[in-house]
Amino acid sequence: MNKLVKNNYFFCATEQSGDNLGAKIINEIKLGKNNHNFDGVGGSKMNKLFNKQYFSLKDFKSIGIFEIVGSIGKYLKMIENLTKIILKNNYKIVITIDSPDFNYRLAKNIKKKGYKGKIIHIVAPSVWAWRKNRAKDFALVFDKLLVIFPFEVKYFRKYKLKTTFIGNPIYYIKHYNKKINKKYIAFLPGSRIGEVRVLIKYFKIISDYLYKISSDYKIFIPTLPHLIDELVLLTSDWKRKPILEISHVKIENYFLQTLLSVVCSGTASLEIAKRKIPHIIIYKLNFFTTFIILLFTYIKYANIINIMANKMIIPEIINFRLNRKNILTEFKKLFNNHNNNNDKQIINSKKFIDSLVLNKSPATMASTEIRKLLFPKPLKY
Fold first, then answer.
1. What is the pTM of this model?
2. pLDDT mean over 327-354
3. Closest CA to 123 of 372, 376, 362
4. Which domains does the chain have, with CATH numbers?
C-alpha cells in the first residue's frame, strides 16, 4: 500500500441533500488552495468538483427496509468496489454523508481491510428515533461525527465519539416568503425515484381537487435533473399541468410567490418551514416497513419540528393514514387557512428553526472540523 497522498479526499453521498452539502464542503476546503483531489460518490453538484465519480444518486433508489433488502446484493457489491478503490488510492480521509446504513458498512469494511486514514461521517443516524445501538457502532468505526441537530450530540459523546454540531443546511435559505401576490402551490414529492413513484398519486388527488375549485393557482414542482423525465411521464395525465423546474434560481423565484405546499417528509419540510410557507407533510412506506417502524420507534411524529416540539405543529399524513379522504381533508384546511392555522404554523415553527442555525455555515463548520482531524495541533510541552 502506498503512503497517504497529501490532500486526497474521498466523499460518499447517496442522497440529494448529501450531494448539496458535500459540494459546499468541497468548495470550502478548496478556498485558497489548489493542491486538493476529490473523488467519490455523489450527484450532479459534487460531480462537477470530483476528479473521478464512481456512482451517482440514480444508483440509489430504495426507500424502505424491505426495498433495501431487495437491493442488498447490489449495495454490497458497491461497497466492495468502493473499498478496493479507497484502499488502492489510499485517500487521506474518507468523508461519508448521511445514508447511515450504507456508509457505516462502507466505513466498517475499509477499516477492517486495513485503511489507515481518517473516517468522518456527516449527518447522524436518527438514534433518538430508533436503533439506539447504532451510536455505539458508529463510535467503533468513525474518527469524528458532525451532526445537524443540536440534541444529537449527547447520544454519541456517550460512547466517546468526537461529535460536533455544525448547524443545519437550512442555513443556506435566505429568501423568505413575503406578503406579495402568491399564485403558486408547491408540490415536493421527494428526491428519489422510488418515493416519487409511491407519492405521486396523492399529489394528483390534490391537483384534481384544485382543478375543480379554482383556476387562480398554478402548481409547480421543484425537482432534480435525474427525476425530470420520470415526472414528465408521471404527470402526463394531470388535468392541471404542473410546472416542473430544475433551475435553482427559478425555483427560488417560484417559492417567493408560493401560497402553500405539500411536502414529502424530510429535509424538504425544514426548508419550506424556513421559507415561512404553510404546508402539510405526506409520506408512505410499504406495509411491512411501516409495521416494523411502529414496533421499534421511540417517537410519535415523523417531522423534526413536531419531534422537537413534541406536538403536531406541521400536519402529517403518513403511512396508514395517507389516503384520499385524509389528504383532501388536511389540504382543504390548509387551503382555507382553517382557524388561522397557517399563521400559527409559521409562528410556532420559528423558534425550532432558529435553534438549528448557527452564525457560520455548516460547510464552514465542517471544513474546520475536517482540518482539525487531519492536522491536529501539536502538543505543547
1. 0.88
2. 94
3. 362
4. 8-167+358-374 (3.40.50.2000), 184-355 (3.40.50.2000)
